[in-house]
Amino acid sequence: MTSAPSAEVPLLRIEGLTKRFGGFTALDNVSVDIRAGERFGLIGPNGSGKTTLINCISGAFRTEPSTVIFGGEDITRLAPHVRTRRGIARSFQIPRPFKSMTVIENLMVAADFTSATHLRLTADDHRDSAMAILREMGLAAKADARVTGLSQVELRKMELARALATRPKLLISDEAMAGLSGSEVDEVLDLLMKLAGEDITIIMIEHIMQAVMRFSQRIMCLDAGKIIAIGQPSDVMANARVQEAYLGT
Hints:
This protein is α/β, with parallel strands linked by helices. The chain has a domain at 12-87 and 168-247: Rossmann fold, CATH 3.40.50.300. It has 9 helices and 10 strands. Helix 3 crosses helix 4, helix 3 runs parallel beside helix 5 and helix 4 packs across helix 5. The longest helix has 15 residues, at 123-137. The model is unreliable at 1-6 (pLDDT under 50).
């Protein structure tokens, strides 16, 4: 049985996060706690700061005076690859596979990158682990296929699978459903719900509001780099500032 997440010690704590590009402030004093095991939705209009925020969490961007705590450790100054090895993984809206490799080889590269050197895992170990993930993603039959032959929804699933191969505690899903059909959106959403039930904390960035509402236990809305609402999905969507900024009403 999974133990209840601690309310006192969040998995991720962001305090006073500010990010500027020259004279433009992309994020302005953003602070939020995300609990272990939480399904957390991140919404906002284009240019609101969503991608900048996840780039700051993953370490792609350096931040101005701020603190990022993950698993009780200050990771504010850690490089992206070190954060990945600590347990932060992200998928990209536009999949970025190694096109010369097969599906399973893409996963094995990710698994090898984050393996502890003292474990001395063999290639067979990595392949077995990757195959388990592909089965979970419904991609086992495509394991030895070139990624160039995958459909759009298969590419999105493989992007999630590569992130899972790093054994994350926190998975950031960046618009994994963009451009998919209704049934394909349901497929990906079901996979994310399943992963959330396996003790993986998930931040979902998504414009498909039905998916965000179904998935999220809490939602945070950004506008112009500031948090304008955070809380239960129904409360956030009923917020007048959210409707004005995000829905245009």
